[in-house]
């Protein structure tokens, strides 16, 4: 079994914001694989399906970003999903918009959603896909920037990165994560 977690904030006011790119990636996977996100439990919304013969869970925690671990840990425990079979998708200010970076471990790097996951999982060693959103321009605060909408000139790159993440996650259903890292980094 694989658990794909997209980080974001619940509510329509956050739809399409930079901080919700993890949600956008999970939605893309759900659409491509015909998985309905129709189960509300574990402080999140999730769906279950089969991709390339592999049972897959897609999860969007509805706890707000800084409490994401409160959703992920209970689902993992209930379905007995080991840490090596999860991947977390989230926004990254240190990557240019449109770029993705796969890693098997690392610090939170100031990301509150990842801080929560590390606290609840008890380790920094879990698969992750960081999706670049770049840094604020023109003196904009980080909070306003990550909770803001993309600039019009960024939309194509964002769409391409979401598509690339979906391809990487699908590749992970048939290959070890290290191999997928080497292919997509």
CATH architecture verdict:
3-Layer(aba) Sandwich
- CATH topology, anyone? Rossmann fold
How many extended strands?
7
The CATH homologous superfamily corresponds to: Peptidyl-tRNA hydrolase
Q: In what range is the share of β-strand residues?
A: 15-25%
Number of domain modules: 1
Task: Pick out the low-confidence regions.
Answer: none
- The chain-level mean pLDDT equals 95
- Mass-distribution shape: globular
Broad structural category: alpha/beta
Q: H/E element string?
A: EHEEEHEEHEHHH
CATH class equals: Alpha Beta
Number of helices: 6
Taking strands numbered 1, 2, ... along the chain, how are they ordered across the largest sheet? 2-3-4-1-5-7-6
> Cα distance, first to last residue?
24 Å
Largest sheet: 7 strands, mixed
Radius of gyration: 15 Å
Helix share bin: 25-40%
Protein name: Peptidyl-tRNA hydrolase
InterPro entries: Pept_tRNA_hydro (IPR001328), Pept_tRNA_hydro_CS (IPR018171), Pept_tRNA_hydro_sf (IPR036416)
Keywords: Cytoplasm, Hydrolase, RNA-binding, tRNA-binding
Function: Hydrolyzes ribosome-free peptidyl-tRNAs (with 1 or more amino acids incorporated), which drop off the ribosome during protein synthesis, or as a result of ribosome stalling.
């Amino acid at each position: 079994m694989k658990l794909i977690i997209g980080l974001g904030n619940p509510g329509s006011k956050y739809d399409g914001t930079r901080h919700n790119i993890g949600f956008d990636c999970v939605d893309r996977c759900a659409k491509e694989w015909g998985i309905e996100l129709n189960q509300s439990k574990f402080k999140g919304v999730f769906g279950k399906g089969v991709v390339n013969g592999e049972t897959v869970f897609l999860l969007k925690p509805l706890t707000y970003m800084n409490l994401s671990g409160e959703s992920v840990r209970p689902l993992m425990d209930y379905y007995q999903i080991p840490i090596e079979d999860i991947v977390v998708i989230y926004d990254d200010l240190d990557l240019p918009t449109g770029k993705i970076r796969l890693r098997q471990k690392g610090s939170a790097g100031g990301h509150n959603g990842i801080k929560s996951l590390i606290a609840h999982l008890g380790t920094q060693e879990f698969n992750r896909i960081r999706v670049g959103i770049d840094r604020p321009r023109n003196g904009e605060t980080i909070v306003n920037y990550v909770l803001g909408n993309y600039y019009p000139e960024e939309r194509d790159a964002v769409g391409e990165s979401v598509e690339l993440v979906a391809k990487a996650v699908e590749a992970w259903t048939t290959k070890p994560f290290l191999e997928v890292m080497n292919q997509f980094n």
